[in-house]
């Protein structure tokens, strides 16, 4: 093979001998199916692979052979599945469940103490119960921050899984 500069592109050309034994330099190999095709053909007559300006010394990501694209598609789908599992486990983790239980408990205690504070018109007990209700609210806010963090992680991992799955399927069916 030799490199021939033509219109700023480096084409790989095959030297092969035709039926008459003469060397033909205007032929290249289809990167998809491997048959020899003339340089002026736009699309491979065997597999339909687009050939105009596609054979370069540096292969483009989109010019991967069919088997490589399919393998990449499978890998992306597996990664998508793994990402979705990680996302779901964020919502079923021990940390998440404990935080939800603690949040509910804190809100319940805050409401009880707030009701007690409301039963007093003023004074030491009212102020003490209001301070206690505020502490329960602070604890509830801390638990809610943990809950939101777990939910955010779950959403991010699930979105990543969806995107990976989309591209994996595109590679498998040949859309990319």
List descriptors.
alpha+beta, 3 helices, 14% strand, 4 strands, 4-stranded antiparallel beta sheet, 176 residues, rod-shaped, disordered N terminus, 2 domains
Secondary structure elements and pairings:
Layout: E1 2-6, E2 9-17, E3 23-29, E4 36-38, H1 66-92, H2 94-119, H3 124-173
Antiparallel strand pairs: 1-2, 2-3, 3-4
Helix pairs in contact: 1-3, 2-3
What does this protein structure show overall?
By secondary structure, the chain is of the alpha+beta class. The chain has three helices and four strands. The chain has helices spanning 66-92, 94-119, 124-173, and strands at residues 2-6, 9-17, 23-29, 36-38. It has a four-stranded antiparallel β-sheet with strand order 1-2-3-4, with no helix packed on it. β3 (23-29) and β4 (36-38) form a beta hairpin. It is rod-shaped, with a radius of gyration of 33 Å.
| Secondary structure category | alpha+beta
How many separate domains? 2
Can you give the mean pLDDT? Answer: 81
Strand residues, percent: 5-15%
Q: What's the gyration radius in Å?
A: 33 Å
The first-to-last residue Cα distance is: 28 Å
Number of helices: 3
What shape does the CA trace take? rod-shaped
Strands ordered across the widest β-sheet: 1-2-3-4
N-to-C order of helices and strands = EEEEHHH
Number of strands: 4
> Which residue ranges are poorly predicted, with pLDDT under 50 across at least 5 consecutive positions?
1-23, 54-58
Biggest sheet overview? 4 strands, antiparallel
Helix coverage percent: 55-70%
């Amino acid at each position: 093979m030799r490199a021939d500069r033509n219109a700023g592109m480096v084409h790989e050309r095959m030297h092969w001998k035709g039926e008459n034994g003469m060397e033909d330099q205007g032929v290249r190999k289809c990167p998809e199916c491997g048959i020899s095709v003339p340089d002026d053909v736009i699309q491979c007559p065997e597999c339909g692979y687009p050939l105009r300006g596609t054979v370069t010394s540096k292969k483009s990501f989109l010019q991967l052979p069919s088997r490589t694209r399919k393998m990449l598609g499978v890998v992306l789908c597996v990664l998508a599945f793994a990402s979705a599992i990680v996302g779901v486990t964020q919502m079923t983790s021990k940390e998440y469940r404990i935080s939800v239980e603690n949040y509910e408990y804190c809100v319940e205690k805050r409401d009880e103490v707030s009701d007690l504070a409301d039963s007093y018109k003023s004074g030491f007990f009212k102020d003490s119960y209001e301070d206690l209700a505020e502490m329960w609210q602070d604890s509830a806010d801390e638990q809610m921050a943990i809950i939101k963090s777990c939910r955010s992680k779950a959403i991010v991992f699930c979105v990543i899984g969806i995107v990976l799955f989309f591209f994996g399927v595109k590679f498998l069916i040949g859309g990319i």
